[in-house]
Amino acid sequence: GAVVSQHPSRVICKSGTSVKIECRSLDFQATTMFWYRQFPKQSLMLMATSNEGSKATYEQGVEKDKFLINHASLTLSTLTVTSAHPEDSSFYICSAREGQLHEKLFFGSGTQLSVL
Amino acid sequence: KQEVTQIPAALSVPEGENLVLNCSFTDSAIYNLQWFRQDPGKGLTSLLLIQSSQREQTSGRLNASLDKSSGRSTLYIAASQPGDSATYLCAVRSETSGSRLTFGEGTQLTVNP
To answer: In terms of C-beta distances under 8 Å and separation of at least 24 residues, what long-range contacts does A40-43 make, across chains too?
Structure first.
């Protein structure tokens, strides 16, 4: 099956710093990528949808200036958490879909962000 | 607005038992429903995808059913094994939500040896 690689798997940073998370589709071209956030024992909440070469579409309540998403190529999307605060600590997961006709989503292994 | 509910929130069974996980959704206008498995601190693994026109899908010991009109899906796991222990999530792609998936909160399954 398709593989989505997400790095880093875990990051600890100080308040005020920025953190970049990468999501790569290894063996397919991902026209659409999704970024989710998950709090402990809760489900995934969609943050934004990114399409290659265009601006990301953010869900209501998600600050686009804080969570910068770049989908510059068909195999790479990045999420940058700017000026991180302790409340940004969470598990972030990306997923990718190949084209419009392939319905399955393939997920990365997630990134645990801890902001001190 | 689509809402997805999973029952039970947690389930503990002895090895070898057959079990059923339930998922319900409020808006029956869906494109498809997908079941995922999530291990602690990990991403999601897709288990089964059921299109809105389908009634069920099978993969190995897993069988997922879909009753779109009543807004329900079940995931049946036969002859459970300790390695099946994980959180199982269902997610729905609604006709009104574009590309987005709406996830349930999951069922945490523990299979005891």
So the answer is: A40/A91, A42/B105, A43/B89, A43/B103, A43/B104, A43/B105, A43/B106
Q: How many residues does chain A have?
A: 116
Cα A33 to Cα A25, A101, B20, B102, B104: the distances in Å are: 9, 14, 31, 15, 20
A39, A50, A57, A61, B1 from A64: Cα distances, Å: 19, 12, 9, 9, 23
Q: Do A107 and B36 touch (CB under 8 A)?
A: yes
Tens digits of per-residue pLDDT, A56-95?
Answer: 999 999 999 999 999 888 899 999 999 999 999 999 999 9
- The answer to whether B92 touches B25, Cβ cutoff 8 Å, is yes
> Residue A38: how many CB atoms within 10 A of its CB?
20
Closest CB to A107 among B43, B100, B106: B43
For B49, how many CA atoms within 13 A lie in the half-sphere containing its CB?
12
Of B36, B42, B98, the CB nearest to A109: B42
Identify which of A53, A82, A45 has the alpha carbon closest to the alpha carbon of residue A70.
A53
In which residue ranges of chain B is pLDDT below 50?
none
Tokens of B37: 């498995």
